[in-house]
From TrEMBL:
Keywords: Repeat, TPR repeat. Pfam families: TPR_8. The lineage of its organism: Bacteria, Bacillati, Cyanobacteriota, Cyanophyceae, Gloeobacterales. It comes from Gloeobacter kilaueensis (strain ATCC BAA-2537 / CCAP 1431/1 / ULC 316 / JS1). This is TPR repeat protein. One of its GO terms (cellular component) is cell outer membrane. GO terms for biological process: receptor-mediated virion attachment to host cell. InterPro entries: TPR-like_helical_dom_sf, TPR_rpt, Ycf3.
Amino acid sequence: MRPFSLPVILLTLALLVVPAGAMPARPLLVAQSVSLGAGDYIQRGIDRASHNDVRGMNENFDKALQLAPNSYQVYVQRGYARAMLKDYKGAVADQTAALRLKPDVAEAYANRGTSRYRLGEREQARADWRKAAQIFRQKGADEQAEQLEAVLRQYK
């Protein structure tokens, strides 16, 4: 299941082309398999995003990670929230933590690439986007792969 591929691509594109302060507050969807308490905080984080409360989103994902510290999905979510808060170093750290737990998460590579791009780490960003596109292709998510490949062509 690819639970949050399209929003990740949209975030990648938005972070690159939307001026600061105009970012959409749309969260990634979280896959199943975290403890019930953590799931409650995840849902609250997603609900906070629908109210454009990115700080509330981040706080709830922090609590979810306290209850489910080995959940790569929560690290991806919190990384998204941190990127929305312009905490790009924190976002990179969270996406990297997600990838340590599950190395084939294309969304984490895409998000990490976008945060690295914002930090001025252009080559690392491009490497992450290439890896994300490769994983999307391997999983049959050709549309997401093509969108990332378009980003790679645009941001050389």
